[in-house]
Amino acid sequence: MLDEFLHEPRVAYFSMEIALRNEIPTYAGGLGVLAGDTVRAAADLTLPLVAVSLISREGYFRQELDAQGRQVEQPASWNPAAFARPLDAKIAVSIDSQPVWIGAWLYVLEGHMGGRQPVLLLDTDLAENSPENRAITHFLYGGDERYRLKQEIVLGIGGVRMLQALGFRDIRQYHMNEGHSALLGLELLRRYSYPPEGLRPGESPYDLPRVREQCNFTTHTPVEAGHDRFTYDLVRQVLNHPIDEATLKHLAGEDNLNMTRLALNLSEYVNGVAERHAEVSQRMFPSYHIHAITNGVHPFTWTAESFRKLYDRYLPGWCHEPERLVRADCSLPDDGIWNAHSDAKRALIEHVQQRTGVALDAQQPVIGFARRMTAYKRPDLLFTDIERLKAIAHRYPFQIVLAGKAHPHDEGGKRLIEQLHRHARTLADTLPIAYLPEYDLDTARLLTAGADIWLNTPLRPLEASGTSGMKAAFNGVPSLSILDGWWIEGCIEGVTGWAIGDHADTSDGDARALYDKLERTVLPLFHDGGDAGWIALMRGAISKNASYFNSHRMMRRYATEAYIR
Ligand SMILES: *Cc1c(COP(=O)(O)O)cnc(C)c1O
């Protein structure tokens, strides 16, 4: 099976979620989209990389919203056989002291430039397993802690064994995309252990330096809840001592098995996903060296057809070398940019009409806001002062399109969606607001290209990177955002977009700053600035942001700084 690929993979990229295509719901949000873009960039750059994830047959969930904005979670089952090929190999891991058999599907990611990248999707739904164990790889981020630990055993330990069984003999680097896959390091420790006969008292049987040399860890969140922890009681029951407990506690924490600690201790190369995020992570984990590789998005995937054509004509080669977009400020004609954007905006307006019945006006600016609906993303910040918002909309008309799912257990996030629906009803006469259900890759593509302004209002410093604003930049859409995550690096005031506030750290202060910026700068420029003023900004987003915040730069950096060291 290896023969069909150009290179023998040397890097194994592990991720709990991965967004391969719209029809395959094996992702929940930004982390999975980044994993997908990583493999898409690897395909374009012909990097010898194999990705490992779970099959998640029942997906994350499909979001339905009733008129009140109550989220109803529908199963998102998919049929692996329609997109992937089952492989012969089978391996077992021990869970609850029983063997759990794991099979794998091969999904071949076909890059638009002809690259082909193997993605292994692990599956426990095999006749050999009990009904309970068959379901381990069914629900992405579903179930309780025990279920999650079982999934992480399958991903980490199962993944390494599966690579071995399939004959991937030349894997030199393992890359953990977030801590979910950190148990892979335990399997490597087991592989590289010395026979007990040769050990002197007190000597460790494990060749830790050798494992660390092969492991890379990318941490993705400064939110504590984002770091998986398991009690050692649970670990003893479920995982049954893959290595001795004293060593495990030394590596993963005395009180709990902390997947982030484990990944940090097993990896020689560790990075955060933006410069600020690396600084924040460095403060959280002072005894490790945390590098920064700022995220990027895949150029071809996130550029609307109309802009692809424009770039193909004026900046050929942009897709493989997105750096070429740096010339967008001199090389793209005004009407070319404006027409490309109008096409994308029309497509969004049609979709909004179809899905929600809300009629948007193509002449008025559209503010787009779409992300996971959860407290720290503050989707309600824009609605802090309804009277002020009405007054602004009265003077400078605009419209809002929202989208986003809340995790099924995040009651606060679900309430936020309902609240946004209430605001939409209250404001209907002054300010058209649409909420698109089922935020997925296709919706994200339509929204990030069709909006005029991309809004992001997270609570500092909790936005590790954020990537949707980068997608917007590829489509000439400027961001209006809190200075956090990637935007600290991407914002040039009035050139690529605008900052909301500076160092104010109260929601009141941020809301005021947001209203001020909208009322005094952003909306007046759109309405009264003349086309040239606005188009200059679109050009700034393309030439200064898209040229840099792309997955090709990101993967070249991982290749030269993490994989080859
Ligand atoms: C890009 C993307 C995200 C992540 O966007 P953020 O800006 O990081 O919030 C989440 N979900 C989908 C479907 C996406 O396409």
From TrEMBL:
Organism superkingdom: Bacteria
Species, as recorded: Candidatus Macondimonas diazotrophica
User: An example of a Gene Ontology BP annotation on this entry?
Assistant: carbohydrate metabolic process
A molecular function (GO) held by this record is:
pyridoxal phosphate binding
Q: SUPFAM superfamilies given for it?
A: UDP-Glycosyltransferase/glycogen phosphorylase
Give the protein name, as stated in the record: Alpha-glucan family phosphorylase
Tell me its family: Belongs to the glycogen phosphorylase family.
- InterPro entries membership: Agluc_phsphrylas (IPR011834), Glyco_trans_35 (IPR000811), Glycogen/Maltodextrin_Phosph (IPR052182)
